[in-house]
Design goal:
Length: 309
C-alpha cells in the first residue's frame, strides 16, 4: 500500500491551493481528481469578483492559471475518484482511501471535492435532464440560441447564468420563490433591467412539462395561489448546492450543508480537514475556496509536524 503524508481529494480552487501550499512546504502530497482541474470554476463563464482581475476573466482561464502554478511543483496525481474511506477516529494510525481499485494510506487528508447543483425536485425534472433540463448555462446555453427558457433560482448563480443566457436566447423567465432575491445587487440591477429577462417573483415551478423534451413549466404564485403554464424550450435550475460527500464516512461530522469544520478547517476526526464548497458554509466563492485551501494546508502541516515530534 502506497503511503503519503497528505492526500488532497478534489482539484478545484480549494484543492489546488491546499496542494500548492503543502508541496511548497516539502510535504509528500498526492492529489486525487476524477475530472479536469478547476471544479465549478470551469462551469463559470465570467468571474468578476476575484481580486487582482479588475476586468474579470473567464472561468477556464483562472482554472488554467491555478493548474499551471501547481504543476511547477510536479504533484503526484491520480485521475480517479475516492470510493471509500477508512478512518482512525484518533488519527494516530493515519487513514486509508480506496482510489479506483487501490488502497492508499495517508497521515492526513484534505477533503475538497466541492459541491454539485441541487435539483429542483419538481415532477418531470429527472425524466427531462438532458432533454431541456440543465444545471449549467455555459455547458448547454448554445443549444437554446434564439429560444425561450426559464431560469429557476434567486441567488448569485441564477442571476449570473441568466445574464450569460441573455446573450444567446430570445427570452428568459427568471422564476424565484421569494419576492426578494439573495444575489448581489449588481447582478440584480442588470437582470431586472435587461430587456430579455422577465422576473416572476414569489412563484414556484410545480412541474416541468413535456414528453420527450421540455415544452413548458407549471408555475404557482405562493401569495395568490394563481396557477399558470409558461411555454419554454428549456429550464435551467440554480437552487443551491449539494456537497459531494458520498465517500465521506460516518465518523466525520456533517450536516445538510456539508462537512463541519472549525475556523482552521479541522473536522472532528484528527488528521482530516475540509476546504471549499464541501464545507458547511454560506459563502461559496472562488476567493473563499482559495482561503479555505490555504488554511487547511497550513493546519495540516502543523498537524504533521506534531505527529513527527
Amino acid at each position: 500500500m502506497k503511503s503519503y503524508d497528505a492526500v488532497v481529494i478534489g482539484g478545484g480552487p480549494a484543492g489546488m491551493t491546499a496542494a500548492l501550499y503543502l508541496l511548497r512546504s516539502g510535504v509528500r502530497t498526492l492529489m486525487v481528481e476524477k475530472l479536469s482541474p478547476g471544479g465549478q470554476v470551469l462551469l463559470t463563464e465570467e468571474i468578476e469578483n476575484y481580486p487582482g482581475f479588475p476586468e474579470g476573466l473567464k472561468g477556464y482561464e483562472l482554472a488554467d492559471a491555478f493548474a499551471a502554478q501547481l504543476d511547477k511543483y510536479k504533484p503526484e496525481k491520480i485521475l480517479d475518484e475516492v470510493r471509500e474511506m477508512r478512518v482512525d477516529p484518533e488519527g494516530k494510525k493515519g487513514h486509508e482511501l480506496l482510489v479506483g481499485e487501490e488502497w492508499i494510506h495517508a497521515k492526513c487528508i484534505i477533503l475538497s471535492t466541492g459541491a454539485r447543483y441541487r435539483p429542483l425536485g419538481a415532477p418531470g425534472e429527472q425524466r427531462l435532464i438532458g432533454r431541456g433540463v440543465s444545471y449549467c448555462a455555459l455547458c448547454d446555453g448554445n443549444f437554446y440560441r434564439g429560444k425561450t427558457v426559464a431560469v429557476v433560482g434567486g441567488g448569485n448563480s441564477a442571476l449570473e447564468e441568466s445574464l450569460y443566457l441573455a446573450k444567446l436566447v430570445k427570452k428568459i423567465y427568471l422564476i424565484h420563490r421569494r419576492d426578494d432575491f439573495r444575489g448581489l445587487k449588481c447582478y440584480q440591477d442588470k437582470c431586472f433591467t435587461h430587456p430579455a429577462i422577465e422576473v416572476i417573483r414569489s412563484s414556484v415551478v410545480t412541474e416541468i412539462l413535456g414528453e420527450n423534451e421540455v415544452t413548458g413549466v407549471a408555475v404557482e404564485n405562493r401569495n395568490s395561489g394563481e396557477k399558470s403554464v409558461i411555454e419554454v424550450d428549456g429550464v435551467f435550475v440554480f437552487v443551491g448546492f449539494a456537497p459531494n460527500v458520498g465517500f465521506v464516512p460516518k465518523e466525520v461530522d456533517m450536516d445538510a450543508n456539508g462537512v463541519l469544520t472549525d475556523t482552521e478547517m479541522r473536522t472532528n476526526v484528527p488528521g482530516i480537514f475540509a476546504a471549499g464548497d464541501i464545507r458547511s458554509k454560506h459563502c461559496r466563492q472562488v476567493a473563499t475556496a482559495v482561503g479555505d485551501g490555504a488554511t487547511a494546508a497550513n493546519t495540516a502541516f502543523a498537524y504533521l509536524e506534531q505527529l513527527d515530534a
